[in-house]
Amino acid sequence: MTGLTAWIGVYDILRPSAGDTVLVTAAGGAVGSLAAQLAKRAGARVIGTAGGAEKCDLLTTRLGLDAAVDRRADDWRDHLAAAAPAGIDRVFENAGGPCSTRPSRS
Ligand SMILES: NC(=O)c1ccc[n+]([C@@H]2O[C@H](COP(=O)([O-])OP(=O)(O)OC[C@H]3O[C@@H](n4cnc5c(N)ncnc54)[C@H](OP(=O)(O)O)[C@@H]3O)[C@@H](O)[C@H]2O)c1
Q: Residue 69's beta-bridge partner residues?
């Protein structure tokens, strides 16, 4: 189910091209982690958001994402801007808008 959701979302709807910058929110979750890897497989430059430094580290070191942004950091907007200096071409919105709602600390 998670794989099918990610597959359809990335390959049927998002359709990233090689060289696109793709943002995947909740990239450490079940669907997001797969979507992020599929977008990488399509040749995109992939940025993931996740809650906490440990998850963000996992995104870049284990899953091979190009950058990770901690949505709980106060300055997450700055980190996202730094990770995407040329802008974002595609967004796999997976968590109801962590980039538009105030992230909570827990
Ligand atoms: N699993 C499926 O088979 C399936 C099928 C169809 C659709 N979906 C949908 O796909 C989405 C992700 O599902 P999932 O199964 O991957 O869930 P999941 O593994 O539980 O991951 C969801 C992640 O969302 C992040 N999150 C939670 N609250 C948030 C908030 N307020 N703002 C921003 N991020 C928040 C959390 O990660 P961080 O704290 O690291 O950000 C959480 O780990 C959901 O909308 C779900 O309904 C899932």
A: 49
